[in-house]
Write a structure and sequence with these properties.
The chain has about 210 residues and is an alpha/beta fold. It has helices spanning about 5-10, 25-40, 55-65, 80-85, 100-105, 120-125, 145-150, 170-175, 190-195, 200-210; strands spanning about 20, 45-50, 70-75, 90-95, 110-115, 115, 130-135, 160, 180-185.
Length: about 210
Amino acid sequence: MTSPSAAASASVLDLAPVVPVVVVEDVADAVPLARALVAGGLPAIEVTLRTPAALDAIRAIAAEVPDAVVGAGTVISATNVADSVDAGARFLVSPGWTDTLLAAMKASGVPFLPGVSTTSEVVALIERGVHEMKFFPAEAAGGTAYLKSLGGPLPQARFCPTGGIGLASAPSYLALKNVGCVGGSWMLPADAVAAKDWGRIETLAREAAALR
């Protein structure tokens, strides 16, 4: 388990091999779910802003699960940035980026992973001083072959590939030199969340944490 002090100084890409991508429908699930993930060795938790419960979920995790490094995903506007940081998000993840969104994320004071899926987007971010980014949608955008190809001309870029990655495919991404971690939701099966089977989620999280 990563301590809060260590987590504060580490890159999001280096906290664990997998960042769980979490969609919270019921705020009451947020804290026990986060505790299960942290207990399983996955301290960095991306709560996506896809539901009305998302910001309250981030707020609850930030307040009640001190060993969690909770972040906000699906950040697509300056308002999303401000609301997420206000709720306690310690990192931000976007599916893509614009100069307006990038400026808001830079000004937020927390680490961020802007989303890319093309070489030109990667070069544009490097030009703007950003070297850590999300590769999305990973499988649809070319997968490990694409990322391996980027490593030659653009070795200064590091990625968190997300999108279509599961337990079986994660190791091939993690083996790449330019991949720090992967994002995924396979350790959060819908039936386990619905049944509030936090023990099963902890077991799946531990399996994911052992991939490195």
